[in-house]
From TrEMBL, chain A:
It comes from Eschrichtius robustus. This is GPI-anchor transamidase. Heteropentamer. Part of the GPI-anchor transamidase complex, consisting of PIGK, PIGT, PIGS, PIGU and GAA1. Interacts with GPAA1. Interacts with PIGT; this interaction, via a disulfide link, stabilizes the expression of GAA1 and PIGK and links them to PIGS. The lineage of its organism: Eukaryota, Metazoa, Chordata, Craniata, Vertebrata. GO terms for biological process: attachment of GPI anchor to protein; GPI anchor biosynthetic process; proteolysis. InterPro entries: GPI_transamidase, Peptidase_C13.
Automatic annotation (TrEMBL), chain B:
InterPro entries: Gaa1. Component of the glycosylphosphatidylinositol-anchor (GPI-anchor) transamidase (GPI-T) complex that catalyzes the formation of the linkage between a proprotein and a GPI-anchor and participates in GPI anchored protein biosynthesis. Binds GPI-anchor. Keywords: Disulfide bond, Endoplasmic reticulum, Glycoprotein, GPI-anchor biosynthesis, Membrane, Transmembrane, Transmembrane helix. It comes from Eschrichtius robustus. It is a multi-pass membrane protein. GO terms for cellular component: GPI-anchor transamidase complex. The keyword Nucleotide-binding does not apply. This is GPI-anchor transamidase component GPAA1. The chain crosses the membrane at residues 20-41, 357-385, 471-493, 513-546, 558-579, 613-635. The keyword Amino-acid biosynthesis does not apply.
Amino acid sequence: MVDTCFLGRGFTTLVGLLLLPFGSLAASQIEDQAEQFFRSGHTNNWAVLVCTSRFWFNYRHVANTLSVYRSVKRLGIPDSHIVLMLADDMACNPRNPKPATVFSHKNMELNVYGDDVEVDYRSYEVTVENFLRVLTGRIPSSTPRSKRLLSDDRSNILIYMTGHGGNGFLKFQDSEEITNIELADAFEQMWQKRRYNELLFIIDTCQGASMYERFYSPNIMALASSQVGEDSLSHQPDPAIGVHLMDRYTFYVLEFLEEINPASQTNMNDLVSICLI
Amino acid sequence: MGLLSDPVRRRALARLVLRLNAPLCVLSYVAGITWFLALAFPPLTQRTYMSENAMGSTMVEEQFVGGDRARSFARDFAAHRRKSGALPVAWLERTMRSVGLEVYTQSFSRKLPFPDETHERYMVSGINVYGILRAPRAASTESLVLTVPCGPESTNSQAVGLMLALAAHFRGQIYWAKDIIFLVTEHDLLGSEAWLEAYHDVNVTGVQSSPLQGRAGAIQAAVALELSSDVVTSLDVAVEGLNGQLPNLDLLNLFQTFCQKGGLLCTLQGKLQPQDWPSVDGPLQGVQTLLLMVLQQASGHPHGAHGLFLRYRVEALTLRGINSFRQYKYDLVAVGKALEGMFRKLNHLLERLHQSFFFYLLPALSRFVSIGLYMPAAGFLLLVLGLKISSAARCLFVASLSHALELWMQLHEAGVGPEQAGRTSGSSPPLPATQRVGLASLVAPLLISQAVGLALYVLPVLGQHVAAQHFPVAEAEAVVLTLLAVYAAGLALPHSTHWVASTQAPDRSWMALKLVALIYLALQLACITLTNFSLGFLLAATMVPGAALTKPSGPRPLCAALLVLTSPAATLLGGLFLWQQLQEAPLSPAEGWRLFLAALAQGVLEHHTYGALLFPLLALGLYPCWLLFWNVLFWK
């Protein structure tokens, strides 16, 4: 599901629209707008990747986040510019029959844990408060550099969130929730503090589209894996490990990103269109 | 104003209830029985489903291939056992160690209250052997148990073989997050009870056992396995435990989903699952299975080693392999795969099983009735008692009120003013005297009935040696015969009660006794129903009509026959016949009597060895209550 909006140069409002093949005029208008996105001159890239679920049966959420991390790193954003938050440790869980690995494809084709994962917020440090502090930059001075989002007004930021969600909220760690209003306010604070140039917000949860309903800051593009009232489906059941390995939406995102190399000509529209499968 | 807070409407309601008392009682009783029989039918019964998210689906790969190994272990075990006559402890220790477990033993001994007929043993002692598979990367805080009870007649060697082969397979996997304990107990359930008591550091039943050297953390779930042959045609699952406790329904759902995945045939109460639920045949078969489960749960018998685990809130099941004359047989590998799948899924648990029901009835393996839907059946039956209590109370109140009114009128006519009546009523008037006599005529039957109940509880075991000396019977038979003798002696009570309370009791004080007896019965049945619905329902269904209809006037022989037929012992006898009938093995009267005597002995034995509560409940609670009604019937 795509949410884009440009209204002239002011970039004043931001609304979620359903991208359906209504008319070629509307479609091509949005296509043009999408093509214009991410061409406005940014100088650095950041990524904030959040997995909010713990427990062994939520293996797939950690695998989702790690597969996006792997792609983002492979495509050029260094660890110093990635804030990775994982709420549980699946690789070293005693129930993992392949310790120190997290697989995203069944038959264990792709180990997204790899050898050089740098997790910045781990286990119980992944809380709503820490997440909002990372986004808004209101961090105690003793926080190490690797845990900070040191973006400026020429940064393009990818924010990827996954976990269990509902209509208007995302569950953190079985004990708290972040609402779409809080998230929208955090992004507005980021805009006011000139902490981003353009923001790409991807969310893979049930009823994910509800999380971007309240955004009111400019220059944000949001993709969600399901509409309000829909569930996101898990994918890749693996009997050897005993859990589902990935969620469907992120699985296709990963497949898409794996094919990108320095010579490829794919653009944002292609990323947007994979969610229409 | 509300219905109950408005005094006018309340009086009207009370008047209506009292006027229609008899029809309401009959209606309520019929409603209770009908509701119970309707429990197997679709709106009241639901499909089972997995409630625990952590266990999820059956998405595991079972890799167990140790069928030959299991068979060879079983052969060795059987051979060593035949040679030594008892559990081959040294061989078990050696084999478990070779498979890679940490092995410990525990010795236990206990004195039985009386030597039981089948084994003729008085002092039972044995050794339990258990091996612990430590979780490779976890902290040994939780564990699962696979137990194989071995007794003198049920050698269960195939189960031991399968357990050892599974242990060898499990030892090679690294995904265990909980320790697994493989337990072989001697003397069946006696060994299991000794092990459990030592593991949880309690002493409930007076068994002397050596303390356990090795422990593995809190037990989350247990599976008991009984296999009599190395091929099975079906697996029978037993859920009812000691005192009617049941494991969490999710454990049964887990077993059922794995049987479906592996194509294994599973039975409940020995009956196959009916396929046609939309029509009437399925639910009718469900009624039979439901009745069997109710009878088994009411008996309070632990139907397998799992029944003893339930007391410590460890969810447990017993799986029995049945080898019948069916064409298609499954070998040990199929059973092993099902067990492997179950243990792998239980390994995923993060908390104790608590999401699904703890109180339920099963018309079939894939259908259940939850407590909210079956409780009204017992509620209707207890409502009959409530209605009877209210009418008896009103009669008594009116009777005593009219008596007081009469007295006041007499005093007034004799010319004594109200103040003098008040003064004289404080000194020695006839009213307190009659009240005192009334109280004596109440207290005496109560005390005597309770005393007979106490005698029923204590005498059989205490007096077995005396009885065995004077009569040519074994101790077990002596116990049973003493039980029956005390029970029958209670029937002669009404004459002795009147001998104690020699003054002529007023006409209406039988009503006071009946009121007290009804309240006593209602309280007891309510408490029993809350913990063991089946026992409460069965006792209510049989005792409530007799209790409600008893009065001294009317056809005495008929009422006496009804009351005897609905006494607790007769209920037990009837239950046995019904149980055999439902299992399609009906009994002749002589066989039934013998089974009844055996059941009595077993009830007393289980009370002393496992702490089963059926015997004390019946002897100390329901039998004295029933005797009070007997007293009411024979009131002079």
